[in-house]
Amino acid sequence: MQKRSNTSTNLFKLSMLSGAALLTILPSAVMAQAAPADDDQSRDGEISTSNEIVVQGQITYRNRSEAVEPVLVYDADYFQRFEPLTAGDALKRVPSVTFLSDVIESDGARLRGLEPGYTQILINGEKVPGSNADRSFFLDRIPAELIKQVEIIRSSSARRTGDAVAGTLNIVLRDGYQLEGGYVRMGVLRFDDGEVKPSLGLVYGGALGPGRILIGGNIQGRYNPKLKKSLRFGDSPENNPNFETDDFDNREDQTDTRDGTDYAFNATYDIDGETTDFELSGYYVRTDRIEDERSFEYDDPTALTGPVRTTPVAGNLLTDNANFNSIKQESYSIASKLEQEWSAGVTKLKVGYSRFSDKQDETEFEIDFDRSTPRFTGDLTDLDIVDKELSVGLEHVFKLGADIELAIGGFAQNKDRDTSILSIRDRFNLTAADRAYDQFGRNPEEFARPFGVPLFTPGSLNTIEEDRRDLFAEVEGKSGSLSWVAGVRYETTDFAINDLTVPAASAVQENDYSFLLPSASVKIEVGSGGRITASAARTNRRPRLDFLSPALLEAELGDNDLLGNPALRPETSWGGDLGYEQRLGRTGVIGVNLFYRKIKDLIEVANTGVEGSEGPGTFVLQPRNTGDGEVYGIEFDLSTDLGFLGLPDTGVFGNLSFLDSDITDFGGTRRFNGQSKYVYNAGFIQDIPSAGVAFGATYRKQGGAFDRIVGEEITTTYGADLEIFIEKRFGNRLTIRAVGSNLLNGSKDEVFNKFNTIDEQLDRDFDEFELETEEAGPVFQIMARYAF
Predict the structure, then answer these.
(1) Rounded distance, CA 111 to CA 96, Å?
(2) Interatomic CA distance for residues 631 and 39, integer angstroms
(3) How far, in Å, are 30, 269, 371 from residue 24 at the CA level?
(4) Exposed (0-12), middle (13-18) or buried (19+): which is 41, by Cβ within 10 Å?
(5) How far is it, in rounded angstroms, from Cα 286 to Cα 262?
(6) DSSP state of 733
(7) Mean pLDDT of the region 345-366
(8) Which pTM was predicted?
(9) What GO cellular component term, any one, is given (predicted)?
(10) Nearest to residue 659, comparing CAs of 241, 97, 218?
């Protein structure tokens, strides 16, 4: 471990020296050469005024990226009229992004339907840490009001890290060279149960000294009241067509309310000089959230009787459960960039630091009446995860000719992750006086006693250090209608985990691996406004962090034990994209894209052959690199006005993706876990300039998904989502919008097949068959923006 500590120290010193270099060069080079503060030209075009952002003069369509790689770009104006709350909400309207989140939530983006860990999430082009074990970052952490644009990068490039099997989602935040003036956003959201939540935001951009500054803040009330119902059976319809009457076990009714507030702040300071550019940026997001669940189990499919009686009666309450979780999450990132143009080319230096913390205090109290003497059980779990990343990137671009450039560079990143999960259980029988329990007037929490000292269970206390060192080279050129880019990236990783819940001899585990990741893309302009793109790249997906712990978790998968594997290596993928897009009229574009990925060294849970802790028929299972898989599909998207029909103020947009895959596991062939068969959305916006009014609607639907792991199989289907808005503009400073979302009372329906052992799963000998439905009602917003 000493070697790794020294490595981390050296990178920290390098980062500090790099930061010092930035500050040294800044006054002598940047400030002396800075453009005048009133210069209207930004690095991406003209600066927008706050009036233009608040009062949109025209409908905004998908941008047509000039990058050689296949990239789809959507400015914030594309989403703004439907008032998305988060980056995840905004991404519901772009191609091939699915979610398996709770109803009316959009957190873990699944590009091409694959698990969130297969998608690389960037903010301003940089990686960010999250608390999720699969290394993914939940996009509901970023308020939509901070976003300048969203980029879907379908294929990889040598200039970015290779953790992008499915592709990359880059969330670009506003900077100082994109806004002149300020605006305030105020409004309220009303939910189905009558709860009202506020929304308040402020953004300002303007000149400051030799450069420009942008600051933004946002306070957003978050709320999600859901109703769940589960029916559980001892067998399934595949074994017994009359299972609903013959094998009924219990029914669970649950209320599940998520109530919280998000606080966000971002700021940038930019100086664009004649030969030197400098940027200092940062963002901060905090979430305070309460998850409150109350559930009742009954022994009747429909009855709502109570209180519980001491003698069996149809419709008796079986269990009463109260689950309460207090969540506090904080994430922030600070980054500095320096770009210097020399006689030999352009040098870019980046230094960044990101931190994510997740603290959760959860209690679960349950009374079990389905026994001779009712029993109370109380569980306490305290979770504390801190993930920190420090990175330095250096790149130099040479001109090899009039239309050819060579970029070479390196990237270093140190990741430190600390996990602490404390838990304890209390259990006792209720007294005779408490047995006449009325579930409508009492709560299991009233029986709770003070907990003792919580303990660490296997795998719940560990530290992880992961050091990356990458080198890359990339050549980009253009010749007539042909543009191309080709490069290679060499990634090396040193990994160490110290699990303090296992014997000292196996507590510290180390691993290292390296990969050569070539990539290439071509773009050919054809005809009038046509474009063909083709890309190929090798990418990888790093192992889940919870799979890397050497701890043994008893009865984790059904009755089977799960043993972690620190020797896991990343999955690797060769893939390609082939697309065509055509410009339509003045603003429109239509596109089609085929994609394919061949993924090797898949991480799947395998049987070690060792008997499990539950005795004969159970086993110790372990994640291992085994087998291959394929992912493929076709994506369509359209975004255009209807000027060719004489309707220039009518905009239509939509996309449709068919997604498929093949993988072989212990149970046979299946799709990749959680991959929806399709996803589509369509909508329109109608502007009435003479009245200063606009209205529109979007409709979204994604297909069913299937998951299979040892001990459980899940089939998930979603209902459709309909959103409608209407806006009124007042002059050139004020816009008021009314938005209705989830207007079809969206539902999430899941079918669970549960088994105790692998043999029982293969033989279809069910431990339990469950049908679960989760539903939430409409959400209405009134939002006003005022420019100043």
Answers:
(1) 6
(2) 48
(3) 10, 16, 74
(4) exposed
(5) 6
(6) T
(7) 96
(8) 0.89
(9) cell outer membrane
(10) 97
Per-residue pLDDT of 71-88, as tens digits, reads 999 998 899 999 999 999
3-state class (DSSP) for residue 526: strand
Closest CA to 271 of 36, 17, 20: 36
Residue 454 lies in a domain: yes
Q: How is the beta sheet containing 63-64 ordered, strand by strand?
A: 63-64, 71-75, 147-153, 167-173, 119-123, 126-127
Three-state SS string across 47-87, please? CCEHHHHHCCCCCCCCEECCCCCCEEEEEHHHHHCCCCCEH
Judge whether 310 lies within some domain: no
Residues 52 and 72 sit within 8 Å (Cβ to Cβ): no
- Which residues, in sequence order, are CB contacts of 271 under 8 Å at separation 6+? 26, 30, 31, 34, 210, 211, 212, 277, 278, 279
CA distance 124 to 352: 11
Token digits of residue 327: 């969540």
Per-residue model confidence (pLDDT) at position 313: 47
CATH of the domain at 242: 2.40.170.20
Which has the closest alpha carbon to 658: 595, 700, 737, 608? 595
Residue that wins the pLDDT comparison between 53 and 668: 668
Beta partners for 340? Answer: 276, 347
Rg (the chain; Cα; Å)? 28
Number of folded domains that form the chain: 1
> Has residue 229 been placed in a domain?
yes
Burial class (CB in 10 A: 0-12, 13-18, 19+), 520: buried
Distance CA 11, CA 21 (A): 15
Position 497, amino acid: I
CA distances from 184 to 175, 190, 415 (A): 17, 20, 37
Question: In the numeric block, which tokens belong to residue 707?
Answer: 């998951």
Look at residue 504 in the predicted model and tell me its pLDDT: 87
Task: Give the strand pairing for 167-173 and 119-123.
Answer: parallel
CA dist list (Å): 477 to 13, 342, 455, 489, 534: 37, 20, 60, 18, 15
248-272 and 211-233: which strand pairing?
antiparallel
Note whether residue 639 is domain-resident: yes
CA atoms within 13 A on the CB side of 473: 3
